[in-house]
Amino acid sequence: MKNVFTSKPLLPGQQALAKPGIPIFDEGMNLLIKILTTLGLLTKDLDYHVARASMVIVYFFFGYQKWFPYEAETLIPFIKNGPLTSWMYPVFGLQGASWFLGASEWLFGALLFLGFWNKKLGILGAAGSCVTFIMTLTIMPFMPDSWNAAAGGFPAIQGNEAFLLKDLVLFAASLYLLKQDVERVTIKADSAKRFAHQVSSN
Questions:
Q1: What global pTM score does this model have?
Q2: Which of 21, 100, 144, 188 has its CA at a distance of 20 to 30 angstroms from the CA of residue 62?
C-alpha cells in the first residue's frame, strides 16, 4: 500500500524554516527571518519602491553638484577619457558639459519620480538612467592610473576607477526599474485588451 503524503504550500520566508541544518545556525536564521518578516520586509513591492526612491535621491544630489565650477573641474578626467563622453567638451565646453550632465540627471530623476504614478514616464527615466551608467562604465577601461602598482596592479583598484565602480550597482538598479515598469505597463495593456474583448463579445 502506498503512503501518500500531501504537504501544505509554504508561505514566503518559510522555506528556510522547513529545511534541516545546523541547529544553532538554523535557530538564529529562523529568528532573523521572523524579525525581518515582522518588520515588513516581505511587503509587496517594497524593494521596487525603495529602489525608485533611492535613484531619485541619487539623481537629485548628482545633478545639483554639476551646476557648480568645483564639480566641472572634478569631472575633467572622467569626461575626457570616456569614449562616449569626450564629445561633450568640444560641443559644450568645460562648464557647459557639467551643466548638460546636471540637466540630464535631473530630467531622469524627475521621470523616475513621476514613475511612482505613471509607469510609462518611469520607463523613460529608467531607460535614460541605464544609458547614463553605460556611458560612465565605458570610461573604466580608459581611465589612467586605475590600478595601484605598489599593490601589484590589477585588481588593486584605486582613485577615479574605484569611484566609477559604484555605477555598476546604479546600472543594475536602473535595469531593475526598467524591467519592472515595462512589465507593469505590459500587464496593464494585456488586461485592458482582454477586458475590451470580453465587452465586445457580450
A1: 0.82
A2: 144
